[in-house]
Request: fold
Amino acid sequence: MLVHFILKDLKIELRSKEIITSMFIFGLSVTLIFALAFQVAPAMIREFAPGLLWVVILFTSVLGLNRLFSLERDEHALWSWSAGPVDRGTVFIAKVISALIFVIFSEILFIIPFFVFLNLPIEFSFFQLGLILFVGTGAIVSVGCLISGITLQASQRDVLIPILLFPTASPVAIAATKCTQLLFNQKSITEWNYWLLILGSFFVIFTLFGYLVFNKIVEE
Amino acid sequence: MILKVTTLSKYFNLSPIFRDFSLTVYSGEKIGLNGPNGSGKTTLLKMISGITSIDSGEIQINGLEVNPEQTNSRKNVFYLGHSVGLYPGLTGQENLEFMAGLYSQSTSTIPDILSKVGLGTNESKLLKFYSQGMRQRLKLASALVIDPNVLLLDEPLTGLDPDGIQLFETILSNWDSRGKTMVIVSHNLDWLSRITDRIITLA
Reply:
């Protein structure tokens, strides 16, 4: 059933390309604005860059999550499974995985322009950056999916998602920025692994919490 | 008995829509639900199908309580609502395949069912390009794919042309002959009294 829901989201996105295109264009635009606004010394930009990167990821995630959950609202498509013999927690896990795929794909697209436009030196392990991006993005989308689920039936959901998500996800943004900053400063993984553990904990806890409560929060 | 609603209560903004409402529907029975706008017809169907929560009381289908944790209770029920309840970004055929997957039904019958409801030539068209009548036909098609024992039909004739109404009545008589249990909401009292065994009017 999990794969059934993920494939459905992928099929719709593959056809419309709405989510990834909008996230990529938005991410690229914000990167360009940052590149033009922060014309400072290279040493300073290296200090700012991790924070800017996670601001871009957080903003683009909101855009993607909003659209991903709108698929269920359009024409009341959620009735198809909320009235069916489906474990609704599985739908939540499927949404987290779909969101993770979409956000990571858009990150892959805008991360190269991010380094090019901000003129950042690439003197770190790509694998470690990938690990931070994966766990950090997972933490953001698990929190984001829970909030998107809670606001699914709300009339002001477009406004509510960022209002609720930004404060809730701020510990994630701080931990992810710290990890990335220490990585950019070529520190060993042992110096920033506890920040990574915080991100991982958010990812697991919010995914499990969402799985348990999604049953109730999607009811009208 | 297949469907039992016991002392059901539901409040919207502290005003009661249902207070200690009870209903028993027997296997193979066709019940009509009638009443003015806002009397709770749609809400009742949505509560039976598990889409809307209840404040107190109990709903049982085949002896199983309808609640979010009890997925088996929703296995033999299908709610055909006001909205199409399917994905606009998928084609008619893909939507039916998705529904068949949810209810663990075979997808081999889908082309025949699409032809039967008059959508055979529109199977690869995206749902968002369907007209209101075509959407209603697709909803009927999803009910045929799932083939549930209990059908909750909310204004099923909305948007259907005369051919569509005739098609719906043919399907309805087929369901009736196969002993399906139906709860049908309609404002058309004459039509409802013609096709159902008894009518319940909600105040």
Q: What stands out?
A: Chain A has one domain: 2-217. DSSP finds eight helices and no strands in chain A. Chain A touches chain B at residues 1, 4, 8, 11-12, 15-16, 71, 74-88, 215-216, 219-220 (CB under 8 Å).
